[in-house]
C-alpha cells in the first residue's frame, strides 16, 4: 500500500506547471486528487486522465479561488465526491509584473486576490473538515521573492510574503488538532510562468547553475503531505538551488 492510499488531496492551479507535477506525484503515492483550475478545461481534463491512469480517482473543478462563495461550493463538491479532504496544496497563482511607480491598482489587487486571498479561502473552507477529523496537511506554495523581494514584482512578492505569514498563523492555530501547515518557497522553476526567464542573469545567481524542475518541487510537496512530516509545521522550505542562502 502506498503512503497516501485512501487520502484525498486538493491541488489548486493543478492543470499545469508545478500544480500538475504535484497532483501527479500525490496520485503516484495513492492519493485521490481534485485539481482546481481557473480556465483551461482541456488541460485540466487531460491531467485528470493522467491521474486516473495511476489508478486513483480524479476530479477537475473550475473555480475562481479569489471568490469566497465559489471556493466554499467547490470544497463541498470535493467532499461530497471523495468523502473527505486530507491534503490541501495552495498552488494557484498569477503575475502582473511592473515597476511600483507605474503599477496600477488592478494589477496589485488581482495578484493579491489570486495568490493570497485564494489560499485563505481554501484554508478557511477546508479547516472545519480538518478539525473534525483531527488531521490534515496544508502546503502553501510561496516563493523566494516572498523572502527577498524582487524588482518589478511588488505585488507578487507581497502576495508570497503574505502566504508565509498566513502559513505560520494557521500552523499555530491548527496544530492542537493535528493539522500541519507548511510553505514551500521555490526559486527559478521551469514552467510556463517563467519561460521568458531562460537565459536570464538570474541563472548566474543560482549556485547549482540551473533552474529547478516542477517534479523537484513535487517531491518536496509529497514529503510534506506524507506521515513522514507529521512533526513539521510552520516551516518555510526553500527549493532554489541555493539562490537565497
TrEMBL record:
CDD domains the record matches:
BKR_SDR_c (cd05333)
The keyword Lipid metabolism is annotated on this UniProt entry: yes
Gene encoding this polypeptide?
A: fabG
Q: Which Pfam families match?
A: adh_short_C2
Q: Which organism is it from?
A: Lawsonibacter faecis
- From which residue to which does the signal peptide run? none
The protein's matches in InterPro entries, at most eight in alphabetical order, are given as: 3oxo_ACP_reduc, KR_dom, NAD(P)-bd_dom_sf, Sc_DH/Rdtase_CS, SDR, SDR_fam
| Active-site residues from the entry | 156 (proton acceptor)
| Keyword check for NADP | yes
**Binding residue positions for NADP(+):** 13-16, 91, 156-160, 189
Give the protein's biological function.
Answer: Catalyzes the NADPH-dependent reduction of beta-ketoacyl-ACP substrates to beta-hydroxyacyl-ACP products, the first reductive step in the elongation cycle of fatty acid biosynthesis.
Catalyses which reaction(s): a (3R)-hydroxyacyl-[ACP] + NADP(+) = a 3-oxoacyl-[ACP] + NADPH + H(+)
- Top-rank lineage group of the source organism: Bacteria
The lineage, from the top, is: Bacteria, Bacillati, Bacillota, Clostridia, Eubacteriales
Q: What's a single GO MF annotation on this record?
A: 3-oxoacyl-[acyl-carrier-protein] reductase (NADPH) activity
- Return the protein name: 3-oxoacyl-[acyl-carrier-protein] reductase
Task: Name the keywords, alphabetized.
Answer: Fatty acid biosynthesis, Fatty acid metabolism, Lipid biosynthesis, Lipid metabolism, NADP, Oxidoreductase, Steroid metabolism
Q: Which family does it belong to?
A: Belongs to the short-chain dehydrogenases/reductases (SDR) family.
Subunit: Homotetramer.
Amino acid at each position: 500500500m502506498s503512503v497516501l492510499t485512501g487520502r484525498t488531496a486538493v491541488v489548486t492551479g493543478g492543470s499545469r506547471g508545478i500544480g500538475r507535477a504535484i497532483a501527479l506525484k500525490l496520485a503516484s503515492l495513492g492519493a485521490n486528487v481534485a485539481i482546481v483550475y481557473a480556465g483551461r478545461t482541456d488541460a485540466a481534463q487531460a491531467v485528470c486522465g493522467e491521474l486516473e491512469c495511476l489508478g486513483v480517482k480524479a476530479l477537475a473543478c473550475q473555480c475562481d479561488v479569489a471568490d469566497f462563495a465559489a471556493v466554499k461550493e467547490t470544497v463541498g463538491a470535493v467532499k461530497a465526491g471523495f468523502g473527505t479532504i486530507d491534503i490541501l496544496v495552495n498552488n494557484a497563482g498569477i503575475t502582473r509584473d511592473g515597476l511600483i511607480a507605474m503599477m496600477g491598482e488592478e494589477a496589485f489587487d488581482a495578484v493579491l486576490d489570486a495568490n493570497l486571498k485564494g489560499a485563505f479561502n481554501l484554508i478557511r473552507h477546508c479547516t472545519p473538515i480538518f478539525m473534525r477529523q483531527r488531521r490534515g496537511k496544508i502546503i502553501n506554495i510561496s516563493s523566494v521573492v516572498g523572502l527577498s523581494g524582487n524588482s518589478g514584482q511588488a505585488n507578487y512578492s507581497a502576495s508570497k510574503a503574505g502566504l508565509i505569514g498566513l502559513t505560520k498563523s494557521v500552523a499555530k492555530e491548527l496544530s492542537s488538532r493535528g493539522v500541519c501547515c507548511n510553505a514551500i518557497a521555490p526559486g527559478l522553476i521551469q514552467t510556463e510562468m517563467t519561460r521568458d526567464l531562460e537565459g536570464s542573469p538570474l541563472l548566474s545567481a543560482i549556485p547549482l547553475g540551473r533552474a529547478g524542475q516542477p517534479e523537484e518541487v513535487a517531491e518536496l510537496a509529497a514529503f510534506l503531505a506524507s506521515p513522514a512530516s507529521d512533526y513539521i509545521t510552520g516551516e518555510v522550505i526553500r527549493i532554489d538551488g541555493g539562490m537565497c542562502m
